[in-house]
Amino acid sequence: MKHFALILGLVLAASFSHAQSGHFQVPNVKVKDLKGNWINTSNFDNEGKPMIINFWATWCMPCKRELNNIAEVYPDWVDETGVKLIAISIDDARSESRVIPYVNGADWDYEVYIDSNADFKRAMNVNNVPHTFLVDASGNVVWQHNNYAPGDEDKLYKEIKALVGMR
Q1: pLDDT tens-digit series, residues 109-149
Q2: Which of 66, 34, 51 minimizes the C-alpha distance to 133?
Q3: Which residues contact 12 (CB under 8 A, 6 or more apart)?
Q4: What CATH code is assigned to 23-163?
Q5: Which residue(s) pair with 145 in the sheet?
């Protein structure tokens, strides 16, 4: 029995360290686009270039600050690295109706989806927003960041450039 507990502990420790490293595949879950169509997250693609998956909500001020600040530099990021940003709203059924008006007013050049059932949020182990993931060409999460402070977008861009081999 002691050996079982030791082995179980080692397995749990190994899986915890793997989860903390941030390297895992984007899970296969359905989210809604802004027209109400269900889209499978396994179909998220950027033709061999990196993707950013950002979880946000209309009621989250740091989320909106982050996405609005990225929006200012996003065209340059796309030109220089080919990155694509996918914004996943976690607004639930009560606040989901605010997503489209906010996105239209913000004039973001991002793909925006709604995860009102929180299936994708749970699958990606998102506990609070904003939560940003950087995904490589193979669909592997290679970096993640939780919360937002001014300047975090610069750190994200450094990670994107490193991923595509730029200095």
Answers
A1: 999 999 999 999 999 999 999 999 999 999 999 999 999 99
A2: 51
A3: none
A4: 3.40.30.10
A5: 132
